[in-house]
Design brief:
Structural class: alpha/beta
Distance between the termini: 18 Å
Order of helices and strands: EHEEHEEEEHEHEH
Number of helices: 5
Largest sheet: 7 strands, mixed
Bound molecules: pyroglutamic acid
Shape: globular
Strand content: 15-25%
Length: 206
């Protein structure tokens, strides 16, 4: 049977009217590697995004949840290694919330590592010339919020959880050097998903 991958992207936020994460998720095919893809677009709202994600995951029952979001401060695609139990916003979310120094889940661990094999993914993809980087800080904004929420919820279960941060698209910035073309972002995301599918199949057969 095909494995199920729940793939999420975000609504636009701040002064932007598109979000490259959702643009890329939409552009991908319905089947990649051994995965049937289930897409979900999430609002940039603390708490709500995580709740919608868990509701959809409950319905789909995915083998893997891969979330994506944009990082306006980077021109590289990052595979994130860790989510922290912190809500620290530098700008308001899409409902006007701007938490500072709060936790995602009170009393829960300070951080969780991603449960997709981030180090192997980066090593293998870079060997093939795919320009991915390891991300050591997902921040304290809504991306980290859903990443932490999913890792906490699926802790000690077989469901694998990962997060990818993608740069701005060219039309979102005056300086194209600060962006990545849509085709490139989509291509890298596709390579990550195919490699992940191959790795999980290999793990199972080992
Ligand atoms: N990026 C934000 C939230 C939504 C998005 O696409 C972040 O990095 O937290």
């Amino acid at each position: 049977m095909m494995k199920k991958l729940l793939l999420t992207g975000f609504d636009p936020f701040a002064h932007y009217n598109i979000n490259p994460s959702w643009e890329a998720v939409q552009a991908l095919p319905d089947v990649m590697g051994g995965f049937a893809i289930y897409r979900l677009r999430l609002p940039n709202i603390y708490g709500t995004a995580g709740r919608l994600l868990l509701e959809e995951a409950e319905r789909v029952k995915p083998d893997v949840i891969l979330m994506t979001g944009m990082d306006s401060g980077s021109v590289k695609v990052h595979i994130d290694a860790v989510a922290v139990n912190l809500r620290d916003a530098l700008i308001e979310d899409n409902k006007g919330a701007k938490p500072w120094g709060q936790t995602v889940v009170p009393g829960a661990p300070a951080a969780y590592f991603a449960t997709v094999p981030v180090h192997n993914l980066v090593t293998k993809l870079r060997r093939r010339g795919c320009p991915v980087h390891l991300g050591y800080c997902t921040g304290g904004y809504v991306c980290n919020d859903i990443f932490y929420t999913a890792l906490h919820h699926y802790h000690n279960t077989p469901v694998k959880i990962g997060f990818i941060h993608v740069p701005l698209l060219q039309q979102m910035t005056f300086d194209e050097a600060q962006a990545l073309p849509r085709e490139e972002t989509t291509k890298v995301l596709r390579q990550i998903i195919e490699e992940l599918s191959a790795m999980l199949a290999e793990e199972e057969n080992a």
